[in-house]
Design goal:
Layout (H helix, E strand, L loop, with lengths): L7 E4 L12 H4 L5 H25 L5 H15 L6 H10 L9 H10 L3 E6 L3 H11 L7 E4 L10 H11 L6 E5 L2 H9 L3 E5 L15 E3 L2 H8 L2
Parallel strand pairs: 1-2, 1-4, 2-3, 4-5, 5-6
Length: 227
């Protein structure tokens, strides 16, 4: 099947381009391996939970606030304590997460196929600027769009409409690229196309169906969109 091309590809960042769970390697400087892996997972889950809850309540705090609060909760849930210096260091390291191995080659190929590439993330602008610079990914993107500009988190329809407006395109000409099923569902509900990068076990969320493009990584995405 020929997949229609989008005018632009809007990339989620955390979990799609870079690996937030991989921060267990930094946590391991302070905690045992087993506890570091546990805390990394619960940190990410609580971070997302906070964004959902804030949006439902009509309240907004930026993503660094969510990230700090989630770290505090994850450590407490694991019965661990770190001093303020260690916590600040971990928050700083969140702005230097490791890209997935396919991220750079995939972006190089997609850029070569003529797509306009944009970052579209829950991340606060200062976090995204630092992360893209630290990982060397800045060069691939023409635009960096943060939900901070709207004051509400994904999957609110407002953020997807805002992204299309920022890109100067009808929403149906933008394709979200995200490893987070809730994000893909939100994009399609707002009228945007989506591509699910399945970096997990193939299990999509029960309140939606996978989009027309499902791939395991970004190089496979380049193959699919070139068909």
């Amino acid at each position: 099947m020929t997949i229609p091309t989008a005018g632009a590809l809007a990339f989620d960042v955390y979990g799609t381009l870079v690996d937030p769970i991989g921060i267990w390697r930094r946590l391991e400087q302070h905690l045992s391996h087993e506890v570091a892996v546990q805390v990394a997972g619960s940190w990410r889950r609580k971070q997302l939970e906070l964004t959902f809850r804030l949006s439902v309540m009509g309240r907004y705090e930026d993503f660094e606030w969510c990230t700090r609060k989630a770290l505090d909760h994850a450590l407490a849930a694991a019965g661990q304590e770190l001093d303020n210096s260690a916590r600040d260091e971990l928050i700083s390291q969140y702005n230097d997460l490791d890209p997935f191995p396919d991220t750079v080659p995939g972006l190089e190929r997609l850029r070569g196929q003529g797509y306009a590439l944009a970052v579209f993330s829950n991340g606060a602008p200062h976090m995204l600027d630092a992360l893209l610079a630290n990982t060397g990914l800045t060069e691939f993107f023409e635009t960096c769009i943060s939900v901070d500009e709207v004051g509400v988190y994904k999957p609110s329809p407002a953020v997807y409409r805002h992204a299309a407006q920022r890109l100067g395109l009808p929403i149906e000409q933008v394709r979200l690229v995200s490893a987070n099923p809730f994000d893909d569902i939100g994009a399609e509900a707002a009228g945007m196309r989506a591509a699910w990068v399945d970096r997990g076990n193939g299990l999509f969320e029960p309140d939606g169906t996978p989009p027309d493009v499902v791939v395991a990584n970004l190089t496979e995405l380049a193959d699919r969109l070139a068909e």
